[in-house]
Amino acid sequence: MSKASATAKQLLPDHATANLFENNVENIVRFVSSAVDSVDRLVEDSNSVATSSRTGTDVYGAASDSFDINQSFIPPQLFLEPFPPPSFTDSFKAIQKWEGYVIEVYEETFLARLIPILGEGADQEAEIYIEEVEPVDQVLIEPGAVFYWSIGYLDKPSGRHRDSYIRFRRLPAWTRRELKAAREKAKMLQELLNVK
């Protein structure tokens, strides 16, 4: 009885389970031994080819007329190298782009006005699911917020996929001083143009 079998019988009180475990362990040991023997044979074969190349004989031990002592021997590779990584990264090709601004926000959606930037079409209104927006941008969804919506193809190493991407514009908040200056400038222009 092997050491693994004895350990299995100690750990597993049920003899049927222990016998099943013992058979599996013995099968695994046989498989590993067979694999080691195969690798040993490959190494021996490559060594005999290397030795015969240096002595001027072929693999079967016969003298070789075409032997060149200056010719270097390159042993065969036992393992293949993995495929190189793809030469391109993910890329997105937009077929339609809009600039939009939020009109109203509902529980699961928001209403937006869309102005085409790329592609054909007139200005339009659309109701968009909030979950279509990246979680980090969802906090920016409020009336008046500006966003960009692109629809196109995402090319990946695994193939081409249709994709949609909504990105909200991030601008720093206006300071009170900037707002006051803008109001004063607007008032001055209103007086110059004589507009009430």
How many H/I helical runs? 3
Order of helices and strands: HHEEEEEH
**What's the domain count?**
2
Low-pLDDT runs of 5+ residues are none
The profile of the biggest β sheet is: 5 strands, antiparallel
Query: What is the percent of helical residues?
Result: 25-40%
Structural class of the secondary structure composition? alpha+beta
Q: Calculate the terminal CA-CA distance, rounded to whole Å.
A: 105 Å
Give the radius of gyration. Answer: 37 Å
Strand order of the largest sheet: 3-2-1-4-5
Q: What percentage of the residues does DSSP assign to strands (E)?
A: 25-35%
Principal-axes shape call? elongated
Tell me how many strands there are.
5
Task: Calculate the mean pLDDT score and round it.
Answer: 74
Short summary of the structure?
The protein is α+β, with helices and mostly antiparallel strands and 196 residues long. 34% of the residues lie in helices and 27% in strands. The protein is built from three helices and five strands.
